[in-house]
Amino acid sequence: xxxxxxxxGGAGYIGTHMVKRLLKDGFNVIVLDNxxxxxxxxxxxxxxxxxxxxxxxxxxxxxTEHHIDAVMHFAAxxxxxxxxxxxxxxxxxxxxxxxxxxxxxxxxxxxCLIFSSTAAVYGEPEKIPIDxxxxxxxxxxxxxxxxxxxNMLRACEGAYGLRSIFLRYFNxxxxxxxxxxxxRHEPESHLIxxxxxxxxxQREQINIFGSDYNTPDGTAVRDYIHVNDLVxxxxxxxxxxxxxxxxxxxxxxxxxxxxxxxxIKAARKVTGKHIQxxxxxxxQGDPAVLVASSDKIKQELGxxxxxxxxxxxxxxxxxxxxxGG
Length: 325
Fold this sequence. Notes:
Layout: E1 4-8, H1 13-24, E2 28-33, E3 47-50, H2 56-65, E4 70-73, H3 80-85, H4 87-107, E5 112-118, H5 141-160, E6 163-169, E7 171-173, H6 191-199, E8 206-209, E9 221-226, H7 227-242, E10 248-252, E11 257-259, H8 260-271, E12 277-280, E13 289-290, H9 295-301, H10 310-322
Parallel strand pairs: 1-2, 1-4, 2-3, 4-5, 5-6, 6-10, 7-9, 8-12, 9-13
Antiparallel strand pairs: 9-11
Helix pairs in contact: 1-7, 2-4, 4-5, 6-8, 6-10, 8-10
C-alpha cells in the first residue's frame, strides 16, 4: 500500500531530514509549512503547500484533496528564552494551532500523529539519566505548551481513536551526510552551529554560560543526538502507529553527555580552526546536566543510534556549514 504522510513544518531542520528519509523509503510526502522558520529551498522533494496549521480552511482542503495516512508535526516554536518573554506566541502556535490540526485530523478520520516533543517537559532533572517516568515539571512556557499537547493527545485517543507517539528530543545536532541539508536557524541559538560559525569567522567568539556547575569541567553537560538518528526513530514510530499500536511517548538521546568545553574542543579538532571562547555567567534556568535514557524506545521499537560520537556529529555539521549552509 502507498502511504501518504503530511509533514507539518517539513521545511525546517528536522522536517527536511524527515522528508528525505520518507521519500527514500517510498512514502508519498506532502509538506505543509508557513515558511516563517523553514526554508523551501532545502525541501528535498514531495509537494509543498505554503500555509499555516492554524488555517482550518486550508487544512480542510488538504485533507479533502489528499488521502493522508499519518501526520508528522515539526511546526513548533522552540526557543525557551523567547517563550518566557512572549508566552502568548508559544501558546498560540504550539498549543492552539496544534489543537486545530488535531481537530481537522479527527474530522477527516486521520488517526496517526507523530509529535515532536521535547526534554523540556521534564524541567529540572531530579535524576540522571532522565527516563520517561521522570516527573513532568516544565519550567518554561515552551515546555508547558509541549506537555499540554501531549496531554491533549492522550485524551484524544480514548475520545476519538486518534493514536499518537510523542518523541521527546534532547539536543538535536548534525546534518545529513550528503551535505545538502542541515541546521539553519535565524537567529541561531544552538551550541554546535554557533561554535562552527565562530570557526568560520562569522562570529567573534563563542560564549560559555556558566563555569561553576557541578560537572567535571564546570560547564553544562548535554546529550547530543544526530538528526538522522532522530529520523530513524520517527520512522520506527510511524510504522508502529500504522501497525495499530497505541499512544505512547519516547525519549530520544544518546544516553551520554558532553560538556560545552568538550563540544568546543571537538569543533577545534574537526575544523582545525582557533575558536575563541569567552566565559560568561550562568543563564537562568539552565540545568547542570541533561542526559536521556532512551532504553524504552530501544526495547519496544528496536531503535539504535548510529552517530554516537561527538566528533562524528560535529563533523557532519561542519560539512554542511562549509558548503554554505
